[in-house]
Structure formats: structure tokens, C-alpha cells
Write a structure and sequence with these properties.
single chain, about 120 residues, alpha+beta, Alpha-Beta Plaits, 5-stranded antiparallel beta sheet, 4 helices
């Protein structure tokens, strides 16, 4: 079928079985992550909810950075609090119960998920 796909302009073909397997593996390995998508070579955008008592809960992004809670190549893309979407800035704070969308150049590491979950 590769020739047919090529004629249709499709340049990437994925196996649904492999994709499902990868999704299930990530769900078991990282249960705190609610949704994720691979971007480029190793990058990942993912979503999780901040636990009560998480190290980052109650901190601004500036303070979280100063405390070294997140790797340098990590960006908080969005915060949803009480069904309201917020585009975060340095002074934005992270609260327990927030749903946070994160981009990490090297994927969702334990260091990142540990910052948002209860120890």
C-alpha cells in the first residue's frame, strides 16, 4: 500500500497497533499524565492535574524555576483553573487542582511529573 499512499501525498504511515501499544505503555509508566503527544525527536507536550501537596503547588513559575523544580527546556503552555484557560507568565502561580499543559524538549521526565504530584 506504500505506493498508493505515496501517490496520495501521504509521507508518514503509522501502525495503529504500535501507536496503541505506545499509548498504553506510557499510561502505565506515567499514570499522572492525562494526555500526551510526541513532538519531533524526543519532545513531548502533555497534560496533568496538580496534586494537593505537590512541590510546585502554590508557587509562581518564577519561584518554581528558582527552586529548580523543572528542567530548563520545559515550558508551561497553559493552565486551566475552574474551567478557565490561563496563558501563564512568570508571575503566574500553580495551584492544586489546576490542569497544566507542558512542553518538554526531552519528554515527560520523572523530575517534571514529581513536581506536580504528591511525593
Amino acid at each position: 500500500h506504500m505506493e498508493l499512499f505515496g501517490n496520495l501525498g501521504v509521507n508518514v504511515v503509522e501502525s495503529p497497533h504500535e501507536l496503541n501499544g505506545q499509548y498504553l505503555y506510557r499510561a502505565v509508566q506515567r499514570p499522572a499524565i492525562e494526555d500526551s503527544m510526541q513532538i519531533g525527536a524526543g519532545g513531548e507536550i502533555f497534560e496533568l492535574t496538580v496534586d494537593e501537596g505537590a512541590p510546585i503547588a502554590g508557587l509562581s513559575l518564577i519561584d518554581a524555576d528558582a527552586d529548580g523544580l523543572l528542567p530548563e527546556e520545559t515550558v508551561i503552555v497553559a493552565i486551566v483553573r475552574d474551567d478557565e484557560l490561563h496563558i501563564p507568565r512568570g508571575e503566574s502561580d500553580i495551584q492544586a487542582g489546576d490542569t497544566v499543559t507542558i512542553f518538554a524538549k526531552d519528554g515527560a521526565s520523572d523530575r517534571i511529573t514529581d513536581a506536580f504530584t504528591r511525593s
